[in-house]
Specification:
The chain is an all-alpha fold. The chain has one domain: Serine Threonine Protein Phosphatase 5, Tetratricopeptide repeat (Alpha Horseshoe), CATH 1.25.40. The protein contains 9 helices and no strands. The longest helix has 20 residues. The protein is globular.
Length: 178
């Protein structure tokens, strides 16, 4: 991830994801059954891990989910699509990116739409994986339009966006339970 990010950015995406994951895992013993608290604790773990843009976006995503799930101990699978839509809105507001800019938002949007109304977690994972892959392929031939990568817009054509690839890994990990 660092190598991919280094082609268009500052090359710290892999390290950021690793630090966030390490901090979230370390916080697991302190988490309660309250989903909102789980996501809030995860957001704080990401905030402590990194000041990078992707670390900040992860924290914003977790905080958005925390607000929606506060006080709850379970959630129906069919709630995931609207929840992803609210995360998309929050990330767009925070980062200033829009759909079509060739960012993680595009894979997030495709994922949310692909699982809308689906209540089986295995089907959701399969559909999300397919949507992420199709989105990465669709945007590979387009330039990045925002962030540090926009400075290399022409050079970014034919390259995968690091945030999209990071999201691919997050979706894959969600399917394994890790």
């Amino acid at each position: 991830m660092n190598e991919l990010d280094g082609r268009l950015g500052d090359g710290d995406l892999g390290a950021t994801l690793q630090k966030c994951a390490r901090n979230v895992r370390a916080a697991l013993p302190t988490m309660t059954d309250d989903l909102g608290q789980v996501f809030k604790t995860s957001a704080m773990a990401c905030t402590k891990a990194s000041g990078s843009s992707f670390g900040t976006l992860l924290a914003v995503a977790f905080l958005t989910v925390a607000k929606a799930t506060q006080g709850r101990t379970e959630m129906a699978w069919t709630e995931l699509s609207p929840l992803l839509a609210s995360v998309l809105e929050a990330l767009s507001a925070r980062g200033g990116a829009s759909l079509g800019d060739k960012t993680v938002l595009d894979t997030l949007d495709a994922t949310g739409k692909s699982i809308e109304g689906v209540d089986d977690p295995a089907d959701q994972h399969r559909l999300a994986t397919e949507a992420v892959e199709a989105t990465i392929t669709e945007f590979r031939g387009k330039p990045n339009k925002i962030g540090r990568a926009r400075m290399f817009a022409e050079r970014s054509i034919g390259m995968d966006d690091p945030g999209m690839i990071a999201f691919r890994h997050l979706v894959a990990a969600a399917g394994t339970g890790n």
